[in-house]
Write a structure and sequence with these properties.
Blueprint (H helix, E strand, L loop, with lengths): L11 H31 L14 E4 L3 E4 L4 E4 L2 E4 L18 E7 L2 H4 L9 H15 L5 E6 L7 H11 L6 E6 L10 H7 L10 H8 L7 H9 L1 H14 L8 H8 L4 H6 L4 H23 L4 E5 L14 H12 L4 E3 H14 L8 H11 L1 H11 L8 H19 L1
Parallel strand pairs: 5-6, 5-7, 7-8, 8-9
Antiparallel strand pairs: 1-2, 3-4
Amino acid sequence: MKKTRTTIQTSPHTHWCTRLGKNLLLSILSICLFLAGMELVARIWYSPQKLSDASIFEYDSEKLFRLKSNLTTTFKEVPFTTNAFGYRDNAVPMAKPKDAKRVLLVGDSIAFGFRVLDSETFDTYLEQSLNNLFDERGENTTVEVINTAAPGNSPFQEYHDLKRGLAFEPDVVLLQLTLNDIIEERGFWIFEEMGIAGKQGSNSAMENADYIFGTANFPHIDTVLRQRSALYCMLKDWGSRIRFRDPGGERIAEKAQNEEIFSVLSLVYTPNHPTVLASWQRALGWIQKITETAERENVPLIILLTPYNFQFPLSKETAVPQQTLSVFAQNREIPFVDLLAILQEQFASNLIGENPDGRNTDEIIAESIGKQPERWRDFWNTFFLDYDHPSPAGNRFIADILLPIVAHTLE
């Protein structure tokens, strides 16, 4: 019997799919080998970055950065500690104790307590004063002021700090702001502190401001690639050199810094410049979100605005930042504490003593500066360590100003 051979025929479509699959695999393998080779070459000149272990900050995918938890370290050569939540505060339980009232403080380096001890921050003084006040009244109430503030914070971070802080069931929210919360020309220091910046200046100040102020999301993939790929770091550096037309890379930092000419001075001297107006729109947008969040949770909000030293000898008409936030607060019936005006009135009162002569605060300060300019500087240096950060005495002064306002709100 003759055997027959069966032949299985494959269709042209099957052959085409097989060839396509092989070609795709070869292409992917070729690309991987190419990238691996480029990575090895890039590591001759570049190294992947590492998040700084020494930094007081860690990366936060939602708000860019936050203080590390359970720290016992120094910042600007002054010791400080953080609790399990990453707050510069004592250990605090999430659940509010019975007969307790809580004040949630959100803010920047001023509320954090820049270059002062844990016991010298205004939230510490305020908590002590509030508890003393309730004790004197015979009320069985304990007050806790929970300080969520961190250096470098803007209203963007403070909005997220408020959202997270609502878990502590606050009875009052205290929002501390200052001028560089509106516009910031040195925001790159946060990136350098954390170890997620490239060469200094490779990101422009405006780009950093976009990330810090929440205008643009800092891409998580960027952080991951910086830490793992020298090739990615090289491409970022080359991109900066092309952008700033500096092939050698020697002047990138200088050119990037010169790109941002706006500072807190612009808020006062060029308040109607488009860049300044855009900065206000951005900041007020986040402050509005803070306001709406507090209202939605039925938690009263208080706004404290702290000044810069260059504002002190100027007339009230130039206090545009204070006026802008005052109008914002008045329109929403939010208590607003203008520390600049309070300090100016205190200084003028010290000069005229018990003999007022009809002159207003601007006139008294202007005359004093003309005759004895060192007097206002001595007055400022009593309450501040530098251009805007309060000294221990300044923190005590702020707590005393806030005491009646916060106590009334808690009632």
